Amino acid sequence: MPPVHIPQIGHSPQPAPVDSVTLLADANGRRAGAVGNLGEVTTDETDEATEYPEHPREKHRGPVVLRRGRRVEDTTTDQRLLDSRGPSDWVHTDPWRVLRIQAEFVEGFGALAEVPRAVTVFGSARTPRDHPEYELGRQIGAALADAGFAVITGGGPGSMEAVNRGASEAGGLSVGLGIELPFEQGLNPWVDLGVNFRYFFTRKTMFIKYAQAFICLPGGFGTLDELFEALTLVQTKKVTKFPVVLFGRSYWGGLYDWVKSTVFAEGKIGEKDLALLHVTDDVEDAVHMVQESYKAWEDTH
Length: 301
Description:
By secondary structure, the protein is of the alpha/beta class. The protein contains 10 helices and 12 strands. The chain has helices spanning 45-51, 77-82, 94-112, 132-146, 159-169, 200-209, 221-235, 249-264, 271-274, 283-300; strands spanning 22-25, 31-35, 41-42, 58-61, 64-67, 118-122, 150-153, 174-179, 193-197, 214-216, 244-247, 277-280.
């Protein structure tokens, strides 16, 4: 029988028992921390103090690293998730707003992805139905529908309703992108496809992304805001082949003259920038401008 080797007691230290804590290793093989039973990661303070004396103690909360006084927490992430008795004010914090903003982009992209070629038309929400501008809005909506374009508006009353109405009555697709406001407004009854937004910047993205042109009827600050944002995006090449039509010489003429005699004359914009604006009183001219620009876009794509 071969001899049996019996280790001497005390010759080799016995490994300490390992409980439910599992050690993690980083890319260099060093122990980086420990995982508890709920997924929280804490730094092995003894190792850090020995190998990296200047490395502060830390706690990992998912991808977030907490150090010094911030690493002391009474509960874990899982506990806070599953505890229904916690405070509800978290829905008003910025991280939650980011998710809500993301959800608005997802909803907008999903709803509008299959919209055919379209033109975004802006105008005042205060235009009464018996005003000549309302009738012009109906004519523009109908003419765009006849030319094979869907129309996109802010979905509100006034000129926006007129354009949606004209397109819908002509058998075209009428889209309305509403916005949450302090006063109730809602989508007008002539909208076939509607999406409501909380945030202006999300809504503005949809106005630009799914349109091949802008037509601006007489309007207020909202129309001016959207007009100059569109011009900025075209000027800076964020969008291409994107005509901006100002409909109504008597209304927009003063603004155009100021841009030409002051902004352009003083060198704040170039000649190509000034040419981005097209002022007209004629429905057919406005639609023709849109068609020509879209054809040029198709030729380059």
